[in-house]
Design goal:
By secondary structure, the protein is an alpha/beta fold. It contains 14 helices and 21 strands. A hairpin with an 8-residue loop joins strand 4 and strand 5. Helix 3 packs parallel to helix 4, helix 4 runs antiparallel to helix 9 and helix 5 runs parallel beside helix 9. The two termini are 33 Å apart. The mean pLDDT is 98. The chain binds ligand BES, manganese (II) ion (MN) and zinc ion. The site of ligand BES has 15 residues, from helix 11. Ligand BES binds next to helix 11.
């Protein structure tokens, strides 16, 4: 899509014009102008509509030649406007204007720092579709998003950066929505190489032999029952003058059948999305590099299927992830923590300032926080606050959860250093306590996105299916680390 800056309102014409409206038909910038142009005619029209400028409302007014634009979109923002409200409004506009080729807007003139970026993010994400497998795809027709009137130039600049983030979120959504049939570990590793090439990031891929040589016992164990061989991808982005060093680790189970501790049929329906953490890391690396953010970043994604083949790991087997601690595997469906054990060990060895892992780790986290909020754990309060602040700015919701030391005994094993499941209660906490064993002294934040990695419905800038959750938080975090 083209993102451009136009001239003053009076000089613009064609397509649709989208303007902000606040609670009780309080006209925002640009809307006041359009209202004046349309005069009594608009008053009469609005009398017959259910539109008062509340957040969530959007009205398409066919101007019938009374304005130089064939449609006027009145975009309701309510009375309590923040960046996320603008993002959501942008998303609704993106959906509503999907058949409009040319969209001009004054939404960037809402007096909030970063308004244009948020509107653009929402607009473009709202037009996202996963239609790879549709015989008759119906993509959005919008070709141009044009900011007009005061501040247009600056808005277009901001919007271009926002589009880079949207591309990364869309990449993560696409990878997550792709069927497991089409995203074997080797296929995803090729995709990683392609991303690395396009944005200038080094990509190293370990195959089964290297995984064994590097003693990645967690990834080896989980991949034993799979026909498609495992990979481990390591991205490295090294800008000229980095202000910090961030390590990202993403769970990349391309299909989670549960292994021998087999899931139910229903339990497997969405398990192609069990690599959403890895997808978020792919997307974040792509955007961070494309935006030239001054932070050194490595991205580690163990990629494998969790399958019950004849060679599969058995309940009761003991494995040894990279850092040498031993794990008794009592449930092969608690596989995410096993591959993350290797990923986190590798990340800790690199001695970054901060490790952040992203994983669709536990059904229990989804039970605790629902479908639209992720869980956050950390071994360092400052790091937790930093990630929470980045997430809030990016418009992704996380809730901080506890890492109680006295729960560690839940994962004591009678024959090994730990077991891979705890008691039923606090399942998401037990998983986080397990991960903590592999980060050493490095500040670390764990994001469990089992819920929000798949959005349950079409709304504002989200659409049903893979959401790309985590990408925006990670990019915002990198930006904040770069600014010091
Ligand atoms: N990938 C699942 C977690 C999951 C479940 C994500 C539902 C999204 C939706 C994970 O590998 C898993 O199976 N976890 C088990 C752990 C249990 C065996 C301790 C779970 O949550 O049931
Ligand atoms: Mn599982
Ligand atoms: Zn899983």
């Amino acid at each position: 899509m083209n993102i451009t800056a136009g001239g003053p309102l009076e000089s613009e014409a064609g397509g649709a014009l989208a303007t902000p409206v606040f609670e009780d038909l309080t006209w925002g910038p640009g809307a006041d102008w359009a209202v004046e142009q349309l005069g009594d005619w608009l008053d009469a029209y609005l009398d017959e509509q259910d539109f008062s400028g509340k957040a969530g409302e959007i009205l398409a007014v066919p101007t019938g030649g009374r304005l130089a634009f064939h449609t006027l979109f009145l975009v309701g923002l309510g009375s309590d406007v923040d960046l996320e409200a603008l993002r959501k409004a942008g998303g609704r506009l993106g959906r509503k204007a999907a058949r409009t080729v040319d969209v001009a807007t004054t939404l960037h003139q809402v007096d909030i720092d970063g308004a244009a970026g948020a509107v653009t993010e929402g607009f473009l994400l709202g037009q996202y579709r996963f239609d790879t497998y549709k015989s008759e795809p119906k993509p959005a027709k919008t070709e141009t998003l044009r900011f007009i009137g005061r501040g247009a130039e600056e808005a277009a600049g901001q919007a271009v950066d926002a589009a880079v983030i949207v591309d990364a979120v869309a990449l993560a959504r696409d990878l997550t929505n792709e069927p497991a049939l089409a995203k074997a570990p080797a296929v995803l590793a090729d995709k990683a190489r392609e991303i690395g090439q396009s944005v200038g990031v080094t990509v190293k891929v370990l195959g089964p032999d290297e995984i064994e040589n590097e003693r990645l016992g967690g990834l080896m164990g989980v991949s034993m029952g799979a026909h498609n061989p495992a990979r481990l991808v390591e991205f490295a982005y090294e800008p000229a003058d980095p202000k910090a060093f961030l390590a990202l680790v993403g769970k990349g189970i391309v299909f989670d059948s549960g292994g021998l501790s087999l899931k139910t049929g229903e339990g497997m329906e969405t398990m192609k999305t069990d690599m959403a953490g890895a997808a978020a890391v792919f997307g974040a690396i792509q955007a961070i590099a494309a935006l030239d953010i001054a932070v050194k970043v490595i991205g580690i994604t163990p990629l494998t299927e969790n399958m019950p083949g004849g060679g599969a790991m058995r309940p009761g087997d003991v494995i040894r992830p990279r850092n040498g601690k031993t794990v008794e595997v009592l449930n092969t469906d608690a596989e995410g923590r096993l591959v993350l054990a290797d990923g986190l060990s590798l990340a800790a060895e690199a001695e970054p300032d901060l490790i952040v892992d992203v994983a669709t780790l536990t059904g229990a986290c989804k039970v605790a926080l629902g479908e639209k909020i992720g869980g956050l754990w950390a071994n360092d309060d400052d790091a937790a606050e930093q990630v929470l602040a980045a997430a809030a700015r990016a418009g992704e919701r996380f809730w901080k959860m506890p890492l109680p030391e006295d729960y560690r005994k839940n994962i004591d094993s009678s024959i090994a250093d730990m077991k891979n499941i705890g008691v039923r209660w606090g399942g998401a906490i037990n998983a986080a306590l397990f991960l903590k064993e592999f980060v050493g002294d490095v500040p670390w934040v764990h994001l469990d996105i089992a819920g929000p990695s798949r959005w349950p419905d079409d709304e504002h800038y989200q659409s049903k299916g893979g959401s790309g959750f985590g990408v925006r938080t990670l990019v915002a975090l990198a930006r904040e680390l770069a600014e010091g």
